[in-house]
From TrEMBL:
Species for this entry: Linum trigynum
Family annotation (InterPro entries): AIR12_DOMON (IPR045265), Cyt_b561/ferric_Rdtase_TM (IPR006593), UCP037471 (IPR017214)
Subcellular location, principal: membrane
Protein name, UniProt field: Cytochrome b561 domain-containing protein
GO cellular component entries: membrane
Keyword Transport: yes
GO function terms (MF aspect): metal ion binding
Source organism phylogeny: Eukaryota, Viridiplantae, Streptophyta, Embryophyta, Tracheophyta
Amino acid sequence: MCSTITTTTSLLLLISLSKLLTAAVAHFQPCTDDFLKLTEPRNLSNCKPLHTLRAEFAWQIRDSTTPNSPTSPPTSIIDIAFGTRLTEGLVWLAWGVNPGKMAKMVGTRALIGIVQTNGSLAVAAYNVTRQAKMFCGLNPSVEPDPLVGFRDPRFEYRQDYDYYVIHATVAVVKKGEQLRLNHVWQLGYDAVGMSPRMHPTTLQHFDSTETLNLVTSQSTDFGHLQRHLRMVHGVLSIIGWGTLLPAGAIMVRYLRYPFQVQEHWWFYPHLTCQVVGYSLGTAGWILGLYLGKASNRYIFKTHRLYSIFIFTFATLQMLAIKLRPLSTDRYKRYWNMYHHFMGYGLLSVIVINIFQGIGILRPAYSWKWAYVGILAALGIVVLALETYTWIKFFRPDPHKNTHAAADDSMNNPHPSDDNIVNRNSSQKPDSSAVGPSPSSALSPAGSNIL
């Protein structure tokens, strides 16, 4: 069992790493046909789907303007369209540019389109400050921004395509030879007048940033690497903690009884599964710590505490390789009880934390159902072996008396004369019985005749 699972583990890791490398060099897929039709009237020649919130972004670099004075920086004029399909309860849609060094929410100059209570649509420019991050409210900007300017903004809903779209012309200060755009997008489900309320706090919403090269259409933002590292973290944790460790526990539980194999036939496969699973799980745990430190904008405390608990007690379990007592030690029974119950409790926490991690990542549903399938397969194996164990326990062993007699003869190969006399006297038949006399039955002649 363990060798098969280990082979599957290696294949899944290779697939994950290949996806990671491919994603780093792959070109963007084209936008949907519906969104391309929406942008046709404005002749936006560049378009790409964004990696979160099912959003899409189209643009066209119109020209560059020379500064009015030697101290004024040159600017680039860009026509943009940003949109996403209608989701139930959507109230506001936002897209903006951060003129700073990196794409992040604080410091973004944004266009936010809001669906009013009467059903009408309104759009305004906003300066997203640190106060907005602290839930202090966000209101439209009064004065124009010197670094990012918006012209002719428009927010519309196209019922024929089921899209919300923001159109605008953006004037951005040009930095360097290559035109890079630190853009941020978002959507939310509540607003009061022209003041949008907090968006959902999922990774999909926190990851809605990107540094885009408008000439090559490629993204160089570190967020892409983080997203793929999260996938690797999830794969390592599912295979290491969630698959190999339970498989090792199943081996040691059922190979000793009812199959009663010799110790080296169950101990070393069990040890292999546990060591490989612990190594992969620890690698995923270290990667998770790195991701938690790199993503200081959000912390998942429960998931983190569970993971620390799992690593700590899994390490204690692995110390049994060197610290397990000998079979002659008097406290071995109590140590076995601790080791088994700690292992069962640890597996329960592992399953809970894996499902919580899947809920945080919110990948395709295939992740969740894949792990459900793994648990179902392990559960079927356990159910079958447990049923066989109880059947064997309640079924009488026909060879038990034979084995006991053989053991007795081996322990007493030369019985004493007193034992022989006692045995013969106890087996003496009743004199009234019909048949040959005991003397004739036990005589050599009688034996030869019979």
